Amino acid sequence: MDPNVPKKIEKKNNVLDVYPEAVHFLPDHLEIEHAPLPRAARLTTIALISLISFLTLWACLADVDIVVNAKGKVVAPGKGLTIAALNDSIVKSIEVRIGQIVKPNEVLVTLDPTVPEANEAQLRFNQARARLVLSRLRSELADTPFTPSAEASPSEQFMQRRLHADRLEEYRARLRGFDSRISEISGNVQSLERQVATSARQENIGREVLGMRSEVYKQGVDSKLSYLDAQNAHANLIANNERTKKDLEASKKLLLQIQAEKEAYVKQRQGSLSQEIADNEKELEAIGNELAKATRQRELSTLTSPVQAMVLDIQKYPSSSVVKSGEPILVLAPMQSPLEAEVYIEPRDIGFIRANDPAAMKLEAFPYHRYGIMYGKLRSVGEDSLVKDSAGHGQTAYYPARLEISDITKLRNLPGDFRLIPGMTLEANITVGQRKVITYLLYPILRAIDDSIRER
Questions:
Q1: Residue 70 belongs to what domain range?
Q2: Which stretches make up the AprE-like long alpha-helical hairpin domain (predicted)?
């Protein structure tokens, strides 16, 4: 075929062939029908097909996080710091207000200190008296001069000094009595010992005289009467010597008895004083413990903040009203302790979350697109669901969960005095896994098909 001859337009859909040069001379609808496809249209079609193919491939390969959304608020660990009276007291004044930031040791509540101060004063008086008695007893035991301490009252000092002198004089008088009897009996023993020695010499002499009288009587020189007188005199000497020996033994026994009584009295007195000292030391220790409690009660008549905190709640106690022991007066939220987030998990999501799942938290007071996000992890989840009233929806169930706030450095553009405060509401996105993008598109379709197929 001659190349210079223009090609005919191929027949399409039973339309007659037309030379390309003749297209411009056809009616408008035929001109549009037989006009060649614009290049831009072909490129657009190719681009759309490529884009759809790319997006489909990306959806099949790309992973996205699966998150569980939960609303909640910032809370302090525990249930806040409750300030209460140790004992039944009268409220004198409340020095703070709700929302106030208090420093450590700042006065919160002033209670009437009359009763604690009276108890403390009485116990201090008892303690001083017990110490004075203990000092006096130790002086008695050591038999040393007694010098009362200046902490006791003058009347107590005088009374204990007088008691010490009287008891010491009684002790010494008893000892003098024992010593007097011992001295008397010792003198009697010495006298009897001399008598025994004399009697022994007299007995020996009488024995010699009796022997001589016996010899003379046997020789017939002396009379029998003289011999019998010598025998009688010798027998009297023997009896007198035996009697003196018995008196000496009795005196010695009596001396030992008096000495034993003296020693027993001294030991009994020492034991009695030692027991009194031990009892007094126990009493003094008990008074010291009671005094420590009374001092603490007096100190607690002024309730102070243990840490830097914010006042969350104050009970309404008018001035001069009575507060019972242990009843809360106000509640503090410690500011130095790390805060947490308490969120509410819907029952449909509870099967997917686990401890230590990462979480992103958005404060409602500071929109995240401008101020950023906080990060943390799931610390714990409640073991059972709770029920709360929801406006317009009646009662709804939820699982309470606690999130640990570990990173707030991603927050930005915040006011200079910004700080997290318990009660700030937030929304948490807890990451529970990943999935392909394509599943997000296919699962609803598959679920709809599956449900529609089984519907009656």
A1: 64-77+338-454
A2: 117-295
